[in-house]
Design a protein that fits this description.
With about 210 residues, the protein is mainly alpha-helical. The chain has seven helices and four strands; from the N terminus they run ββαααααβααβ.
């Protein structure tokens, strides 16, 4: 008697899959141990290595630009664009408008500290250059446009560079506006130079200051 019985009609004759099972069973149900797709595995390891390298570069060796600094740079660039719009046609009124923007004056103060303190002092009290906070002026009548012209064109005879050759119009305008905010504050420093004008009132403080 033959032991090789013919399969009944409709019976599944396919060989069970060779994929191994996992080592657990729940309620008589076993799970195939299917490997992850290769593209998924490579993507996972790529992100792992990238994160590791990024952490070492940014936080251990500190070679990259910090996120906070990048954000500050982006914000300064955005304020530059806003200043261009606010400035419009260069005038006493447009410069006065800049003095009322606290963020832009903070930027301008940083530029002043970087480029002007060597000659004018940290508070405009004067070192080599004149005191910018008293009522005596060597050039012009202390208007914002007069200040802009001096900053932009410089005073070669006194050794002051023409910042208009190194900075954009907006940057020069912000510097002039900042100097306008410290005029008339009478910070103790270098003795008066130039012509005494009627009391120069400082620009009103910017909103939020």
């Amino acid at each position: 008697m033959s032991t090789n019985a013919e399969p009944a009609a409709g019976e599944n004759t396919e060989t069970p899959p060779s994929t191994p099972f996992t080592d657990h069973e729940y309620d008589g149900i076993q799970e195939y141990d299917n490997p992850m797709p290769r593209w998924w595995v490579w993507s996972f390891w790529a992100t792992f290595y990238f994160a590791t390298c990024y952490f070492l570069w940014q936080h251990v060796y500190q070679r990259g630009t910090p996120i906070e600094e990048e954000w500050a740079m982006d914000m300064r660039a955005a304020r530059e664009e806003a200043a261009k719009r606010d400035l419009g046609t260069l005038s006493e009124e447009s410069l006065a408008k800049l003095t009322q923007n606290p963020a832009m004056m903070t930027d301008a103060q940083g530029a002043f500290s970087k480029r002007c303190v060597q000659c004018h002092g940290a508070n405009g009290e004067g070192v080599i250059g004149p005191n910018l906070t008293d009522d005596y002026w060597l050039h012009g009548k202390a208007s914002l446009m007069d200040i802009y012209s001096v900053v932009n064109d410089g005073v070669p005879a006194k050794g002051m560079p023409a910042w208009g050759k190194q900075l954009s119009t907006v940057e020069v305008a912000k510097l002039a506006a900042y100097v306008g905010t410290i005029r008339g504050k009478h910070v103790a420093g270098k003795p008066p130079e130039g012509t005494q004008l009627a009391a120069v009132a400082p620009a009103p403080p910017a909103a939020g200051q």
